[in-house]
Design goal:
The complex is a heterodimer.
Chain A: H1 3-7, H2 24-41, H3 44-60, H4 64-88, E1 97-101, E2 104-107, H5 108-134, H6 137-146, H7 151-180, H8 189-220, H9 240-266
Antiparallel strand pairs in A: 1-2
Helix pairs in contact in A: 2-5, 2-9, 3-4, 3-5, 4-5, 6-7, 7-8
Chain B: E1 2-12, E2 21-29, E3 33-38, H1 44-51, H2 54-57, E4 62-69, E5 72-73, H3 79-85, E6 86-89, H4 104-115, H5 119-132, H6 148-160, E7 166-170, H7 178-193, E8 197-201, H8 205-211, E9 214-219, E10 222-228, H9 229-233, H10 247-257, H11 269-294, H12 296-306, E11 309-310, E12 314-317, E13 320-322
Parallel strand pairs in B: 3-8, 3-9, 6-7, 7-8
Antiparallel strand pairs in B: 1-2, 1-4, 4-5, 9-10, 11-12, 12-13
Helix pairs in contact in B: 4-5, 4-6, 11-12
Classes of the chains: A mainly alpha, B alpha/beta.
């Protein structure tokens, strides 16, 4: 028996990384404040500067590669789409043409607007992505439970994640069994779609039946007993410093919002 | 004292024509170990569901008659409270894993967390159960990535760690190898020693014969036979009721058919070995006596063997020996 592992439950769960060891709500407040601030400022320099910080934070938290993989895809897809859409909708009146592509003129003003939109879209998406990449779902639900969210809600959220994985595994099993009975499941897209539709019935029926059994299993574990729960895996509650840090980010966001409103009134 | 009492209990699942349980009456005493056997579709699992209170609270349908748990009708019980009193391990190990815990250790501890047991006690009890079920090497593994047999052990550990007064176990060894099955039965036996009431549905009849106090044979939703394990499992008529006989009992009946009956029909291997040895000894003695009467040498040898006195070893009476001469 690994007693070191067992004894690890006697103290707060920590991984030894400043960012990862912050209480989930602290991380959530910081990430959402930063994300929302990019929308409030709506300036490409501010938004993209934060995007660079996200990479840095993700790398420091030990999930740089995982974060970069998803974020760069978002960057390319959202960035390209919005830039092209803005150029399509651009008018030729009082604008500066940057270059022409097979007779299609690209305007500087539209490009800057697209960059600004991109910056807050990616600024917000990046903040959310950073939060979920560096915080385990069970930790998020733990902090919500500490705030008074019922453990039934927490269970539904967490088991839904596992159900997606289980359903995928079951669908592969059903497809394999169909294949062994001689049904074509490989080939072009139409063939794959044709093979996939008959699996939906057994997949759904299996999911319903396993949900029934799972609820009995949870009942056997005294899940619905109305008593105060114990948590063997505990996170350190928000410290004074964390509260101060969270408050600073919220105040900064409110200040930015106020400044933005004030500026728009003065204009 | 009866912990669970069924009086003419009849139950029909929703949207079915035939009742799954028909007029079942039986008293389950505290501290006893009951085995439920019988053919597939005989009503074994439905009976367990009724005893666990899932019928009529979870499975709607029509329940008539009475099912009394610890003096209170099952209809009046709060299902959540029953779960703290009666543990239930069921057949499919794949749906018994919560899916929300990332390690086996946390999975096993989940029931105790729900019951609000202090953390230090949880850690001790989980360690103890993991050792008992030989899953201590798995405690850091993800329970969703275990094999069927491993999941079955984890599911079993998750229930016995809650230490319920009564335990209903529906085929706990269906995915286990013989060694794992023996381990599980050893634990069940230990639980019985601690005064727990146990109800076990199992097809491994040899193990049922070895451990259970009483047997219920279920057929077509009714109790076809019930009583002490020895009485039920040594009776050939059980075969007509869709149940199996243990290998030892079949051997006993075969011996009888061959004209060499044992003193009684054994139901376990140990019993069979003892009865065969007993029969062999009696046969050997009778053969020796015949020879002794036939020849003077044999007669002398017979006397030496059966006489209570010999100059070498002294007196031998009722299994005790006394020296030929008292020590000086």
């Amino acid at each position: 028996m690994d007693m070191q592992f067992v004894n690890s439950f006697k103290s707060y769960q920590k991984v030894g990384n400043f960012w990862c060891d912050l209480y989930p709500l602290t991380k959530m407040i910081i990430c959402f404040s930063v994300g929302l601030s990019t929308i409030v400022v709506a300036d490409w320099r501010y938004g993209f500067a934060w995007c660079l910080f996200y990479f840095l934070f993700a790398a420091l938290a030990g999930c740089g590669k995982k974060f970069a993989k998803v974020f760069l895809v978002l960057f390319v897809v959202i960035g390209l789409f919005l830039t092209v859409i803005r150029q399509i909708g651009a008018r030729d009146v009082n604008t500066t043409v940057m270059f022409s592509l097979f007779g299609w003129k690209w305007h500087l003003e539209s490009f800057v607007i697209a960059m600004n939109i991109n910056s807050y879209m990616l600024g917000f998406a990046g903040a959310v992505l950073l939060f979920f990449n560096t915080t385990a779902m069970r930790d998020i639900m733990y902090s919500f439970e500490m705030l008074g969210v019922s453990h039934e809600t927490s269970f539904i959220m967490l088991s839904s994640m596992q159900n997606i994985i289980d359903l995928r595994k079951t669908s592969v099993t059903i497809l394999e069994s169909q294949k062994s009975r001689g049904i074509e499941t490989d080939g072009n897209v139409f063939l794959r779609i044709k093979a996939f539709f008959p699996t939906i019935g057994p997949l759904m029926l299996g999911a319903f039946s396993s949900t029934e059994e799972k609820s009995i299993a949870m009942d056997a574990r005294a899940f619905s007993v109305d008593r105060k729960h114990t948590y063997i895996r505990e996170l350190e509650p928000m410290t004074g410093k964390e509260k101060l840090l969270s408050a600073a980010f919220v105040v900064a966001l409110v200040a930015l919002l106020a400044a933005r409103i004030l500026l728009s009134i003065l204009k | 004292m009866a912990f669970i009492e069924l009086k003419n209990a009849t139950y029909k699942y929703p949207y079915t024509k035939e009742p799954a349980l028909k007029d079942v009456s039986y008293s389950f005493e505290k501290g006893k170990f009951y085995g439920i056997i019988g053919e597939n579709g005989g009503g074994k699992t439905t009976l367990c569901n009724l005893m666990r209170g899932l019928i009529p609270h979870f499975y709607l349908g029509k329940l008539t008659g009475e099912a009394i748990i610890d003096g209170v009708d099952v209809r009046e019980w709060d299902t959540a409270e029953i779960s703290a009193q009666i543990g239930y391990v069921f057949q499919n190990p794949f749906t018994q894993i919560s899916g929300i815990k990332e390690t086996v250790f946390e999975e096993v501890a989940m029931g105790l967390e729900n019951l609000g047991v202090p953390k230090d006690e949880i850690l001790d009890r989980v360690c103890q159960v993991c050792r008992q079920l030989k899953i201590e090497d798995l405690i850091k593994n993800n329970p969703n990535e275990l094999s069927g047999g491993q999941r079955q052990r984890v599911a079993f550990a998750s229930i016995i760690v809650m230490d319920p007064e009564t335990l209903i176990i529906d085929e706990p060894t269906s995915q286990l190898d013989p060694e794992g099955t023996e381990d599980v039965f050893e634990i069940i036996h230990t639980l019985k020693g601690r005064g727990k009431t146990l109800v076990l549905v199992e097809h491994k009849i040899d193990l049922i014969a070895e451990y259970c106090d009483e047997i219920l044979v279920m057929q077509h939703g009714s109790i076809a036979a019930s009583g002490p394990t020895k009485k039920i499992l040594s009776d050939l008529s059980v075969l007509d009721k869709g149940a199996m006989l243990p290998g030892a009992a079949i051997f006993g009946h075969e011996m009888q058919r061959a004209g060499k009956p044992l003193r009684e029909i054994p139901i376990t291997v140990d019993e069979a070995a003892a009865l065969v040895a007993e029969r062999g000894k009696a046969e050997w003695q009778s053969r020796l006596k015949t020879r002794a009467l036939a020849t003077p040498t044999g007669l002398r040898r017979w006397r030496t063997l059966t006489s209570p006195y010999s100059p070498a070893s002294g007196w031998r009476l009722w299994g005790r020996t006394a020296p030929a001469r008292p020590p000086a």
